[in-house]
From TrEMBL:
UniProt key word Signal: yes
Protein name: Lipoprotein
Organism: Candidatus Scatousia excrementigallinarum
Signal peptide range in chain numbering: 1-20
Keyword set, alphabetical order: Signal
Domain of life: Bacteria
Length: 291
């Protein structure tokens, strides 16, 4: 599965605050590599910096649409034309609505750089990008009930169900035949139909849970099985539910082996789940740019 975040970071280079500071363990880099004030001033006076930023925004938006469906708005601020060509820029803000990317559906996604100096060098020959400084973005996303169910009906999430079913089938215990999510009274409901081969029957199981954030991760907690016809080990249900957690699956498009995603808050309200946090890529990370 492609990783949406790194795609956004890399294609920014090919185009050449809500957070006033940074995270507790994240320090904004100094602006030691910027071009001289004369060069920056000249870019401003001649308008080349403005034109370069607009061109970069247009190219970036076009590239994003190759990776995801949705309505996107891109704002890129640069210091000068020469800085932008070198991979140095002031800020990047991306807002997407009604997004479909990597089998994940999101009603809203906002990404904004944490610092006012960002430096990523693109190697066209080797198709790699090197993060010359620590790079951070704040994210905020809204996920509706329809988003969750569209995601759960897509192939990517169904692979998770198949993994659980492979275990259940091997012991002839159960087989999940259907699953869907509901948001009711500020709680998350996971509804799934389970076939029990040994008694030749199917049962609908409804599990209610809260959304909790702990150590930067999102969990479904305080799990309760609503059905009274079946006795289930709540510990095992909670473990399975977090493995199948469609919220965590949705956030996976923002993760990468080189990027650390930290969830700060998650709230269910008005039939949607609002989640926000940060994404950090450390200095000297080299990523491969696939065309």
């Amino acid at each position: 599965m492609k990783k949406f975040l790194i795609t956004l970071g890399i294609i920014t280079l090919t185009a050449a605050s809500a957070y006033a500071g940074c995270e507790e363990d994240f320090m904004c880099p100094s602006q030691t590599q910027l071009s001289g004030s004369f060069s920056r001033g000249l870019s401003t006076i001649t308008g080349t910096n403005f034109l370069a930023s607009k061109t970069a925004q247009s190219i970036l938006k076009s590239q994003i649409k190759k990776e995801a469906r949705g309505d996107f708005d891109v704002k890129l601020k640069s210091y000068s034309l020469s800085d932008l060509k070198a991979g140095r820029f002031k800020s990047l803000e991306i807002t997407g609505k009604n997004i479909i990317a990597d089998d994940v559906y999101l009603s809203l996604l906002k990404l904004k750089t944490l610092c006012d100096y960002n430096y990523i060098v693109y190697d066209k020959k080797n198709k790699t990008a090197t993060f010359k400084e620590d790079f951070g973005m704040a994210f905020a996303t809204s996920i509706t009930e329809d988003d969750l169910n569209n995601t759960m009906n897509a192939n990517g999430y169904k692979e998770l169900i198949d993994e659980i079913n492979s275990l259940g089938k091997s012991y002839k215990l159960f087989n999940i035949t259907q699953s869907k999510a509901k948001l009711r009274n500020n709680q998350f409901l996971y509804v799934f139909q389970v076939a029990f081969p040994f008694i030749n029957t199917k049962q609908n199981i409804v599990v209610s849970s809260d959304v909790n954030v702990s150590n930067g991760k999102l969990y479904l907690s305080h799990t309760r099985v609503i059905n009274d016809f079946i006795s289930v080990d709540l510990g095992k249900v909670s473990d399975m539910l977090n493995y199948l957690n469609p919220l965590s699956f949705s956030l996976s498009i923002l993760e990468n082996k080189d990027a650390t995603l930290t969830v700060k808050d998650a709230v269910i309200k008005d039939n949607r789940i609002d989640i926000d946090g940060t994404i950090i890529v450390l200095k000297d990370v080299v990523t491969e740019c696939k065309e």
